Task: structure prediction
Amino acid sequence: MSDNANVIDQSAPSIARVYDYILGGKDNYEVDRAIGDHFKNDLPGSVVIATSNRQALVRAIRSLAESGLTQFLDLGSGLPTADNVHQIAQSVNPGSRVVYVDNDPIVLAHGRALLSTDEHTTVIQADLRDSEAIRNHPEVTRLIDFDKPVAVVFSAILHHLNDDEDPASLVRYWYDQIPAGSSVFISHFASGDNTETAEAEGKLQATFGRGRWRTPAEIEALFGELELRETGLKPAAIWNLEAGGESEIGSADRELTVWEKLIVAGIGDKR
Result:
C-alpha cells in the first residue's frame, strides 16, 4: 500500500467521519460536519437512523457472542465509538478475536491507538470490495481461523455500494469462506418509497456518488443461502430488543417514526 493511501484528505467528506459526527464523536472535520448538519438540521429526525443502527449492532454482537461465536470480522467498521464490537464480544467471551476493516486512513490511525494493548483485536485498511485482499491479509489470517465459525458484520455498509458493485456478491464470497455454524449480520437503509427516502438518498449520492436505499425484499435477498433468524428483518430500532441493550424508542409497541423505519437489520446463519 502506498503512503498516499494513508494520507487523510480533510478537503473531502468521509462516510466514516460523517457517521462519527452524527454519533457524537470528535474524529471529524468541518467538511464532514457540514454533511452531518444537513441531516441534523434539514432532515430533522434522520439522526435516529445512525443511533438506532448502532444500538442494533450492540444487540447483534451480544447475541452472537452469547451463542458461542468468538471470531468477528467487521467489514466497513467505521471509527471507534462507545460499545465497539470487540468490547461487547469480549465482555461475553474474553478471548474473542476481532478484525475491523475500513478504507479510511483515520480509522486505521485511531483504531491502532485504541487497540495497541489488545492482542486479540486489530484494524486493517482495505477496500470492502477487495474481498481477496481482506481474506489474505496477514492480520486477518493471524486472528481469524476460517475452519471455525466466524461472525461477519456488514453494519450499515452495503447500502453504500451501488447496484453495479453487486453487494450480494460480497456476501456470497464470505458465505463461501466461513464454515457451518457461522453467522452474518446485515443492517441496511430500507426504502420507504417516500419523500424522506428520496431526500436522504439524494444527499448521499450528491456527496459521495453512492448510497442506495433498497426494498426489504432486496435486502433480504442479500442474505442469499444464509438462513435468516426468526427475529427476521426488522427496523433496527426494534430489531432483537429481547437481547437487551439500549433503545431510543423505549418500547417496541409504539408506532415508529418514518426515519426509524428507514434502516433494518437481521442475522443470517450458515447451516
About this structure: The radius of gyration is 17 Å. Residues 74 and 153 are 5 Å apart (CA to CA). The first strand starts at residue 71 and ends at 75.
